[in-house]
TrEMBL record:
<feature type="domain" description="SGNH hydrolase-type esterase">
    <location>
        <begin position="95"/>
        <end position="250"/>
    </location>
</feature>
<dbReference type="InterPro" id="IPR013830">
    <property type="entry name" value="SGNH_hydro"/>
</dbReference>
<protein>
    <recommendedName>
        <fullName>SGNH hydrolase-type esterase domain-containing protein</fullName>
    </recommendedName>
</protein>
<dbReference type="InterPro" id="IPR051532">
    <property type="entry name" value="Ester_Hydrolysis_Enzymes"/>
</dbReference>
<dbReference type="GO" id="GO:0004622">
    <property type="term" value="F:phosphatidylcholine lysophospholipase activity"/>
</dbReference>
<dbReference type="InterPro" id="IPR036514">
    <property type="entry name" value="SGNH_hydro_sf"/>
</dbReference>
<dbReference type="Pfam" id="PF13472">
    <property type="entry name" value="Lipase_GDSL_2"/>
</dbReference>
Length: 268
């Protein structure tokens, strides 16, 4: 469905929120085999999981209900689960990160987490995965490491558990999607610091036998060419670093999924 934008609260950078991502089929050679196989088995006859994920969701609720933004109260205590319909045999996925993960938009009045859209698209293939979302608006990857064993409150006033707590208390998971580092860039953190903290977040999952997907910081069209050059450099280095980790499935650049030239993908 159309992406709607988000903005990390401590900066003026425009950010995309609801990404149209079909992560598993993009790297079949490194995809978590058990989860990918279960999703493929539930794809409608004649369609692959990738083809089904690219089609409109066919769920038991109206399109308006599927796209209705969420309020703060619905996300006050994260992680929050979407999908599943009581059948988790297709797998459990955790989406963890900052405002981009929780879908912070309209100045924090409402939220459109991409994990909800992911659950809907997977369900349309017959794969009723449970997708949990925890997105801490305004928080950096450094914050997430520092608070991994406890909890934190984001700038929108939402509370969320640290990643280690979620893995240990709300698991097991078949896959974790991590999207962080954008706010670190806004604070002019070095590439080394950002990559180090992101690698530590992925390592927390790998230590528990859970594969990960990385969504790199997205472009910020209004921030200028210098910021984009820095972002592209970070994306390249991050992809190369994560490629060396057996538990990392793939590192995706949101710029390839959510074009910055399409206005409907952005909050403003």
């Amino acid at each position: 469905r159309p992406c709607r934008p988000s903005e990390a609260a401590p900066s003026t950078v425009r950010q995309a929120t609801t990404l149209r991502v079909a992560p598993l089929p993009l790297a079949p050679s490194r995809a978590p085999a058990s989860l990918a196989a279960r999703i493929e088995r539930r794809a409608p006859a004649g369609k692959s999981a990738a083809q089904s994920l690219a089609a409109p969701a066919a769920l038991g609720v109206s399109p308006a209900e599927q796209q209705r933004p969420l309020t703060r109260s619905a996300l006050a205590d994260m992680p929050v689960a979407f999908g599943g319909a009581g059948d988790h045999s297709a797998g459990r996925i955790l989406c963890y990160g900052d405002s981009l993960t929780v879908g912070y938009c309209r100045g924090g009045v409402s939220f459109e987490p991409y994990g909800r859209s992911l659950a809907q698209r997977l369900a349309s293939t017959g794969a009723h995965c449970e997708v949990l979302v925890c997105g801490m608006s305004g928080r950096t990857a450094e914050d997430m490491i520092r608070k991994a064993e406890s909890s934190m409150v984001c700038v929108a006033g939402l509370r969320g558990k640290g990643l280690r707590r979620i893995l240990d208390e709300d698991g097991p998971f078949d896959l974790v999607v991590i999207m962080a580092g954008t706010n670190d860039m806004g604070l002019n953190a070095s590439d080394e610091a950002i990559m180090g903290n992101l690698s530590r977040l992925h390592a927390l999952c790998h230590q528990r036998g859970v594969p990960t997907i990385s969504l790199a910081p997205p472009p910020a069209p209004c921030a200028g060419a210098q910021r984009e050059a820095k972002r592209l450099h970070l994306v390249d280095r991050l992809g190369a670093a994560l490629a060396k980790l057996p538990g990392a499935v793939v590192c995706l650049d949101p710029a390839e999924l959510v074009p910055g030239t399409v206005a409907e993908h952005w909050d403003q």
